[in-house]
Amino acid sequence: MGFSDSLVAMVEILKRAPSDDFAKACDKALGLDGTMFGLYIATTWDRAPEHLRPWLEEEEEAEALRSWEPNLIPGLLQTEAYARAMFTAAPGLSPAEVEERLASRMRRQAILQRDTPPTITFLMDEAVIRRRIGSADVMREQLKLLLEVARHSNVTIQIVPFDAEEHCGLAGGFIIAERNGSAYAAYSDAQPSGRTIDDRQVIAQLAARYDAIRAEALPFKQSLRLIQEV
Questions:
Q1: Measured between alpha carbons, how far is residue 155 from residues 50, 51, 58, 64, 111 in Å?
Q2: What is the pLDDT of residues 134-175, one digit of tens each?
Q3: What is the number of other CB atoms lying within 10 angstroms of the CB of residue 153?
């Protein structure tokens, strides 16, 4: 594994917390397909906002994710600078709480680095890529990350342009988790906090909305060209 016997022993008896590199090394040494890394991610859930923890568990098990965002870059794609600007804007959060939430957000993105990451489709309104969060430099870095992530074979990014005018997605963002070809959980944004949904009827309604929103989106290559232009 590349770690000392003493460090492995400390982790085994709960005297030392594992790192993400440690968990990945365990998977490689034991011939596992991300099992240990998934368990490592689970140990970080208690540091995430309470309302988000049920969703993190569902998200970790997903084979596919379908995300819609009308206002902000999806959390799975946010740069550290972009996420910090958003957390800092939330009233009532201390600097320590901002850093804690930021660390949780960055850990959540580890799902994209798994040996077998989920297939993800990100739908975003054009307002998402045009609204300046932080500074121009922050946004430039953020948009470059979108273009880099879009090169991955498991990721699709599509933009719903302004000229789509009114559509059902303007009511709010959500993300749907799928396993074995069917949707089993969803997370819906709301103020002051979102909620995890396991009601099959509600999930079906969100899936129908997602399809309607995607019908208004630019094709993949055109979406990337628009991001590049912005």
A1: 28, 26, 19, 10, 12
A2: 999 999 999 999 999 999 999 999 999 999 999 999 999 999
A3: 7
DSSP 154: T
What CA–CA distance (Å, rounded) separates 65 from 59? 8
How many other β-carbons are positioned within 10 Å of the β-carbon of residue 6? Answer: 8
Question: Running DSSP on this structure, what letter comes out for residue 158?
Answer: E
Number of Cβ within a 10 Å radius of residue 131:
12
How many whole angstroms from its chain centre is CA 208? 21
User: Which pTM does this prediction carry?
Assistant: 0.79
Q: Which residues contact 203 (CB under 8 A, 6 or more apart)?
A: 176, 183, 184, 185, 186, 197
User: CA 12 to CA 114: how far, in whole Å?
Assistant: 23
Task: Identify the CA nearest to 128 among candidates 78, 189, 64.
Answer: 78
Best CA proximity match to 169, nearest among 198, 208, 115? 208
Nearest to 116 by CA among 156, 60, 158, 77: 60
List, for residues 99-110, the tens digit of each pLDDT value: 888 888 888 888
Q: And the tokens for 95?
A: 């600097």
Q: Phi/psi class of residue 165: alpha, beta or left (left: φ > 0; alpha: ψ in -120 to 50)?
A: left
Tokens of 2: 């590349």
- Closest by Cα among 71, 69, 191 to 131: 71
Q: What are the structural domains of the chain?
A: 1-43 (no CATH), 52-76+110-229 (3.30.870.10)
